Amino acid sequence: MEQKPISELMNLSGKVAIVTGGAMGIGFAIASRLAEAGAKVLIANLNEGKSAAAAAALKERGWNVSSTVADVSVEAQVEAMVAKAVAEFGGVDILVNNAGIYPEKLVMESTKEDFEKIIHVNLLGAFFAAKAAAKQMIAQGRDGKIINITSIDALHPSSVGLAFYDASKHGLWGFTKNLALELAPHNIWVNAIAPGGVLTPGTGLGKPVDPALAAMMEPFLKKIPMCRIADADEIGKVALFLASDLSSYMTGSQIVVDGGVLLA
Ligand SMILES: NC(=O)c1ccc[n+]([C@@H]2O[C@H](COP(=O)([O-])OP(=O)(O)OC[C@H]3O[C@@H](n4cnc5c(N)ncnc54)[C@H](O)[C@@H]3O)[C@@H](O)[C@H]2O)c1
């Protein structure tokens, strides 16, 4: 096999990427790295203003980025998101299922609706997007990449109060593996990234303004061998690896990016 130069391995020019929940946090960091590598990126998010502002911030850097509103838990909105990428950028080559929620609540205080809400966003949302994007990728007849953002909670619980979240992320990891099997004949590679603690607006990690959150996080932070939480770009860089030719022989894998926390 001919050895490509590194610059070519990471070059995503001519590719179209969709990042769900891409307006902030990990999703924004991923959108940023994919756009920098040359991909045309569609940021999809719940909130129109935030989506547009995120796309504008990346466009200012000279990159080709657009935005749309999509609640991933609503299949019609997810199909419209994929249709927008096709209409605006000519196809879909990379899908990053990043949108996710992690409300904390004890099982003993929760309702069926609490459980359903998390499953609808974190698991069904990834299914809707993967199905719509893969359909498009198969019709295009060229390689595709699907990257699911799971969590270390897909492997091991990080704290009490996240049972439904853990169920959704264990589910997403199982979904990743089986979808990788199903889509391999179409040259669509499906992988996951399992972050540990990452500094994002959602977690408020590193900025413990909420004393309850700070108290909950303290034992978790003490367990991290690298003695710090991650910057969102540290997930963005791994997403670039999985979206690019650097990971050409990978499918059905989950990359843990946790500063060693699962070792502790
Ligand atoms: N931050 C962490 O420490 C951490 C650790 C492990 C895994 N993760 C996972 O990474 C992903 C991103 O986490 P984050 O910390 O950046 O979150 P965040 O809350 O900072 O940002 C999430 C983004 O997703 C959007 N979103 C939420 N529900 C949506 C929906 N139904 N449809 C479309 N967009 C929606 C939000 O509006 C927001 O822009 C999640 O799947 C989360 O489970 C995060």
CATH homologous superfamily heading: NAD(P)-binding Rossmann-like Domain
Shape descriptor: globular
Strand order of the largest sheet: 3-2-1-4-5-6-9
What is the name of the CATH architecture? 3-Layer(aba) Sandwich
In angstroms, what separates the terminal alpha carbons? 40 Å
Q: Would you give the CATH topology?
A: Rossmann fold
Q: Can you characterise this structure?
A:
The protein has 264 residues and is an alpha/beta fold. The protein has 8 helices and 9 strands. The chain has helices spanning 6-9, 25-36, 48-59, 75-89, 112-140, 163-183, 211-222, 233-243; strands at 16-20, 40-45, 65-69, 94-97, 144-149, 188-195, 198-199, 230-231, 254-257. The strands form 2 sheets. It has a 7-stranded parallel β-sheet, with helices on both faces. α2 (25-36) crosses α8 (233-243), α4 runs parallel beside α5 (112-140) and α5 (112-140) packs parallel to α6 (163-183). Nicotinamide-adenine-dinucleotide (NAD) binds at residues 20-21, 23-27, 45-47, 70-73, 98-102, 121, 125, 149, 151, 195, 197-198, 200-203.
Quickly list its features.
binds nicotinamide-adenine-dinucleotide; alpha/beta; 264 residues; two-stranded parallel sheet
SSE inventory with pairings:
Elements: H1 6-9, E1 16-20, H2 25-36, E2 40-45, H3 48-59, E3 65-69, H4 75-89, E4 94-97, H5 112-140, E5 144-149, H6 163-183, E6 188-195, E7 198-199, H7 211-222, E8 230-231, H8 233-243, E9 254-257
Parallel strand pairs: 1-2, 1-4, 2-3, 4-5, 5-6, 6-9, 7-8
Bound molecules: nicotinamide-adenine-dinucleotide.
Residues 20-21, 23-27, 45-47, 70-73, 98-102, 121, 125, 149, 151, 195, 197-198, 200-203 line the site of nicotinamide-adenine-dinucleotide.
